[in-house]
Amino acid sequence: MVELSRVIVARRIEDREPVGLAPFDGDVDELFVFLDARNDGAPATLQVRWDAPDGTPGRAIDLQVPTARRWRTWATTNRVRGRAGTWTVVVTDASGREIARRSFTVDAPAAS
What we know:
0% of the residues lie in helices and 60% in strands.
């Protein structure tokens, strides 16, 4: 079974670590969700979904987690630009069971 010790939404990943945490301005082009996992069982698949502020679910992104004491991985989205509000990242296991959820805010784009 996969256990997550950290689930962090960030602007980017540098040296396998999240950088630039929420809140985010409306001009952000891309965001990442970083997962720090432990998997003592068989290799597993996690699914990450980025849900928009209006509740529209995003397409699920599969992430593979091998048997490992520590495995860092991440998924990205470029759907947030100009879409202000509270977003939610949902992480589920292969059976669809939710194992993590993180909400974050994208501010309105700056006036030009």
